[in-house]
Amino acid sequence: MRPGLILCAWLALFPILGAMQAQAHLEQTLLTTITLNSRTQRLEIIHQIYAHDIEHAFGNAVQADGGLDRIPAQAMVGIELSSTFKLWDADGEEIPLTLVGAELEAEFFYIYQEAELTSIPEVMRVDHGMLRNHWPNMQNYLNVDYGNFIKSLIFSNNDGAKTITNEQ
Question: Would you indicate the residue range of the signal peptide (predicted)?
Fold first, then answer.
């Protein structure tokens, strides 16, 4: 292959690669999964967030604690964000959630919560505000694993609390 042709092909790829990188940078999504741990008989909630989004949202606060790979920063982010996720049962009673921990693993940041429930409520009201105050276009995906099937909700823009049921 001629060197000039290789250079032209490489330069032609620049806009495509730049668009792919920009698209990855704009990927402001979060995935939350709710399952029942049959071994512990507790409701487990796992939030998976791109670490890059956390770093942008918390900026200097994360850096002041030594970076997201340090426990003080992880604790600060975990406490802050876990307070913006709430569950209620069918009677409108808030389901108490306990923050179990938070950790950085590769490009993802995880926040772990649990509730002392022996089953997933048939009807739950969910308010999922994590990072949505930072970005209006943030999309928070929620999957509830009922064992035989999974139900999903998407929170975006100015959505408030939503209801999810175990009906198929």
Answer: 1-24
